[in-house]
Amino acid sequence: MNKLLKIQLIIGIVIIFSLILTTPQTIEMFKLLIGMALTILIVITIGFKISNKIPITIAPTLFFLDLLVVVAIKIKFIYFISTIGSVTVSTYTDYIVNYFVILIIGFIMSVLSVFVLSSTRKIIEVCARFNIDALPGRQMSIEVDYNSGVITEDEERDKKITLQKQVNLFFALDGVVNFITLSSTFGSIITGVTIVVRSLIETLQFNTTFVHNLKIYIIPMILEIFIFHFILMLLAKSVSIYIRKIMKENYLSINRY
């Protein structure tokens, strides 16, 4: 399974470096779309296909790498929209008339993201509390098996190490979910500030109205918020699925300890 971590690391590095390199606008948009598609595919694959096969030692690192790639794509998207100018942006957004609908969609996605992240954190807290409360009893059970000769000294040590790794896993995943929550919150704030500042710069440079520039930039930025929160929700959901599978394995194997 270390091979999976290496593949994920290579893909993440390739995506990040491809976003750093400066290319023409058409290629930049193409790179952003490819990066978003690959990120969504990676998150879905890890969370819904092979999450039960990920060792507990590399699972937090794997989810954290996914999050870093998502944040890199968000930064590149904001930079791309902020640098191409209102004239180029308007060529992509002229067909959209109802700005109120766009705002409602962005708001709904933000609220859904908050609910999903809150539920994931609650799942982690409950599972961590369950494991911590059951830890002394499971350790005593291991010691009883060792004293009765059922297991060897090496097996006793391995089982205790496994129990400690499971407890550490929930604390590590809680850190990942906290980072996802912070990324979601501050990402939305940064996007809002970027919209206002870029609209103000366009107003001062080209002597246009602030409201006109705001309408131009608000559509791609709301689209960015929609995509960003959607990927974060998938990532948080994959974390919760992985945790439930780990808890199920612990429940099924509890008689062995």
UniProtKB/TrEMBL annotation:
Keyword Cell division: no
Claim: Disulfide bond is one of the keywords in the record: no
A single Gene Ontology CC term: plasma membrane
Short name of any one Pfam family annotated for the protein: FHIPEP
Transmembrane stretches, start-end: 7-27, 33-50, 62-84, 96-117, 169-196, 216-236
Example GO biological process: protein secretion
Keywords: Membrane, Transmembrane, Transmembrane helix
Superkingdom of origin organism: Bacteria
Protein name per Swiss-Prot or TrEMBL: Uncharacterized protein
Organism in which the protein naturally occurs: Thiospirochaeta perfilievii
